TrEMBL record:
<dbReference type="InterPro" id="IPR038407">
    <property type="entry name" value="v-SNARE_N_sf"/>
</dbReference>
<keyword id="KW-0813">Transport</keyword>
<keyword id="KW-1133">Transmembrane helix</keyword>
<dbReference type="InterPro" id="IPR007705">
    <property type="entry name" value="Vesicle_trsprt_v-SNARE_N"/>
</dbReference>
<dbReference type="InterPro" id="IPR027027">
    <property type="entry name" value="GOSR2/Membrin/Bos1"/>
</dbReference>
<keyword id="KW-0653">Protein transport</keyword>
<comment type="similarity">
    <text>Belongs to the VTI1 family.</text>
</comment>
<keyword id="KW-0812">Transmembrane</keyword>
<dbReference type="Pfam" id="PF05008">
    <property type="entry name" value="V-SNARE"/>
</dbReference>
<protein>
    <submittedName>
        <fullName>Vesicle transport v-SNARE 13</fullName>
    </submittedName>
</protein>
<feature type="transmembrane region" description="Helical">
    <location>
        <begin position="198"/>
        <end position="217"/>
    </location>
</feature>
<dbReference type="InterPro" id="IPR010989">
    <property type="entry name" value="SNARE"/>
</dbReference>
<dbReference type="Pfam" id="PF12352">
    <property type="entry name" value="V-SNARE_C"/>
</dbReference>
<keyword id="KW-0472">Membrane</keyword>
<keyword id="KW-0175">Coiled coil</keyword>
<feature type="coiled-coil region">
    <location>
        <begin position="67"/>
        <end position="94"/>
    </location>
</feature>
<feature type="domain" description="Vesicle transport v-SNARE N-terminal">
    <location>
        <begin position="1"/>
        <end position="91"/>
    </location>
</feature>
Length: 221
């Protein structure tokens, strides 16, 4: 989950709890003290609305799977803020009498606090579910990164093997060229040896013929 959203969420929860306490204490005040307390509460409500707007903008900038969960949680916060505004309107009502204030203090505020506590409980459960979802997303991302690293390693190995094969191919090509040159040299030598055999054979034949002629003339005389 977004750390920015979590920061705004913590600020809102603290502010909401503080405003709830101020609403409870404001019902026990009269005159200027009550007006001052109500002014503080209204200023706090403005800050709470600003935080909700910030959380809304941050949630809408996140991926869809995270955004949907955060927007659902944000609706809970908006409902909580509306309850606080309703409490403030009741406190500042000009027609409220002491009996109404007592009833609000004893029953209405108790019910509001109970509803607010129930909403916060649901928000905490939603936060836990969101945290578990975030953990699963982080694990999936970790697995994806590990798979990507493995793929990169395999590609590097394949590249090295390709280079080795290309080097072996170049070496074999060089050996083939050497064999071809050696074959040409042997062919040339074989032709020369054949030609030399004919020359030697011719010389021997001439020598034998010369010897026969010499013997013939000697025996004839």
């Amino acid at each position: 989950m977004s750390q920015v959203f979590e920061g705004y969420e913590r600020q809102y929860c603290e502010l909401s709890a503080n405003l709830t306490k101020k609403c409870s204490s404001a019902t026990l005040l009269d005159g200027e003290q009550k007006k001052q307390k109500v002014s503080e509460i209204k200023a706090g409500l403005d800050d709470a609305e600003a935080l909700i707007r910030k959380m809304d903008l941050e949630a809408r900038s996140l991926p869809p799977n995270v955004k949907a969960t955060l927007l659902a949680k944000l609706r809970e916060y908006k409902s909580d803020l509306n309850n606080l505004k309703t409490e403030v309107k009741r406190i500042t009502s000009a027609n409220a009498n002491q009996a109404a204030r007592d009833e609000l203090l004893e029953s209405g505020m108790a019910d509001a606090n109970m509803v607010s506590a129930d909403q916060r409980q649901r928000l905490m459960m939603s936060t836990e579910r969101l945290n578990r979802s975030s953990d699963r997303i982080r694990e999936s991302r970790k697995t994806m990164l590990e798979t990507e690293d493995l793929g990169v390693s395999i590609l590097q190995d394949l590249h090295q093997q390709r280079q080795s094969l290309l080097h072996a191919h170049d070496t074999l090509h060089g050996v083939d060229d050497n064999i071809s040159r050696s074959k040409k040299i042997l062919t040339t030598m074989s032709r020369r040896m054949s030609r030399n055999k004919w020359i030697i054979g011719s010389i021997i034949a001439v020598l034998v013929l010369a010897i026969i002629l010499v013997l013939y003339f000697k025996l004839a005389h």
